[in-house]
Amino acid sequence: MRRTPLPALALPAACLLLLTACGTERQGAAASATPSTARDCGAGSPTAPGTPDGDEVVVIGTGTGPGADRARPCGTYAVTNRGTEPLTYTVTLGFQDADTGRGLTNVKDTVEAVAPGRTVRRTVTADDATAGVSSDAAGRVTLSVLTVRGVPAAEASSEGGACPPTGVRVYADEGDAAMGLRVVGLHLENCGTRPYRLKGHPRVEPLDEARERVDGVAVLEGGDAIASGTGADGPPEQLVLAPGERARAGLVWRNTVDSGTEGPVAAPYPRVWAKPGAAPVMVIPELDLGTTGKLGVGPWKKEQKR
Question: Domain 168-302, CATH 2.40.10 — does that match?
Answer without folding.
Answer: no
